[in-house]
Structure formats: C-alpha cells, structure tokens
Amino acid sequence: MRVLTLITATLVGALASGFATAQSTQELIAQAVRPLPDDLKEGATVFRYDPATGARIVLRQGNNQVECRPKDEEGFTRCSPTANGPRSDLSSKLRAQGLSDDEVNAALAEAERKGEIAPRIFGALSYRLYDEPDRIQLLWILSVPNATPEQLGMPTGAQRSNALAGRGTPWMMNPGTPGAHLMIPINGLELSNKPQ
C-alpha cells in the first residue's frame, strides 16, 4: 500500500510538473507575440536562446513570416522577420562566447562578406515592446541598410522625448551605414506610451 501511495504521488507530481511547464511555455508564447499586429500573432514562431550556448530553443513553430522572443534580461520583447533568423542565431552564439558588441558586429559583417549569412534586408520590419514608460514602449523598426535621409526623405531628429509623451513620430538612425533604420514609435494603443 505504501509503495502504491508513493507511485501515485510520483505520477501526480510528474503530471503537475508537466502541466506547469506547459503553462509557463504558453505564457511565454503569449508574452512574446504582444508587440505584433493581431493578424501576425497566431502564426508567429516563438523561441528563446540558451544563455550558455546561444542555441535556439523553439517554443512554438509558426507558419508565417515572423518570429518572436519572450522578454529578455533588459526587459525587451522582440519580433522580427524569419529571414533574419540566421543573423540573429549567429549573434546569439557569439554573445554566448562573451564577445563585446563591437566584436559581434565585426563578426557578423565578416560572415556577411563571406556569404555565411544574408545581408540585412531592406524594408524588413521588426517589432519591440518595453513595459515601462521610461523607454519607448511600442516601437516598430524599419531596416534601410546604407540608405541616407536624402535618398528616402526621412527625418533624423530624434523623437524619443515626444515618443515617451505618447506623440512620437518616425526618425532615421545610423544613416548611410549597414545598420540604418527608421524608428517608428506606435502611439495610441494599449501598449503604447500614454499621452502627457
């Protein structure tokens, strides 16, 4: 009888543990897709990286063109095109090796030069969410590698202060470089910075 009780307790514990893990995975998935427009959420792949190795761990395999990561140690939740996955994976593995930001960027540029990863995609849209109002909370980022404001008619005046007050407008950062991008604060949504 004692053995049967022990076996039953072990099975119940294992089932409960499995349910808790599945529940936390579902919570991570729900958290990870929050920055996306509604029509992209259900089909997005959700993954995280093993901090020790940088290896990708898929939490949910999606069926559209977007993939998301749950909130990171800096408090950001990020989504980007699946086409950027190889670049992101290599970056994660390099960071797990302890490389600095400059070293990671140099290694990515070299991998791109060698054809090991694709160049940044012009027009790729990424999504970022931060839950506290001391940063831009809901931000979309449009990649425009090597573009200049003169070519695209984009403003360069930073809109951070206006975005924190819930009235930000787009602006270009890192013009003329491979990392050129347009910052697009999203105003007026539940996840956005509130108007001040």
Produce a short descriptive summary:
By secondary structure, the chain is α+β, with helices and mostly antiparallel strands. Helix content is 35%, strand content 20%. It is built from 6 helices and 8 strands; from the N terminus they run H-H-E-E-E-E-H-H-E-E-H-H-E-E.
Characterise the protein shown here.
With 196 residues, the chain is an alpha+beta fold. It has one domain. It is built from 6 helices and 8 strands. The protein has an 8-stranded mixed beta sheet. α3 packs across α4 (101-113). The longest helix is centred in the N-terminal third of the chain and has 31 residues, at 2-32. 21% of the residues are buried.
Question: Helices and strands in order, then pairings?
Answer:
Blueprint: H1 2-32, H2 38-41, E1 45-49, E2 56-60, E3 66-69, E4 76-81, H3 85-96, H4 101-113, E5 125-130, E6 138-143, H5 149-152, H6 160-164, E7 171-173, E8 181-185
- Count of alpha and pi helical runs: 6
Sketch the topology as an H/E string, one letter per element: HHEEEEHHEEHHEE
Round the mean pLDDT to the nearest integer and report it.
89
Number of strands: 8
Shape: globular
* Portion in helices: 25-40%
What fraction of residues sit in β-strands? 15-25%
Summarize the main sheet. 8 strands, mixed
Estimated radius of gyration: 20 Å
> What is the total domain count?
1
Give the strand order of the largest sheet, numbering strands 1, 2, ... along the chain.
2-1-3-4-5-6-8-7
Give start-end ranges of low-pLDDT stretches: 1-22
- Supply the helix-strand structural class: alpha+beta
Tell me the distance between the termini.
Answer: 67 Å
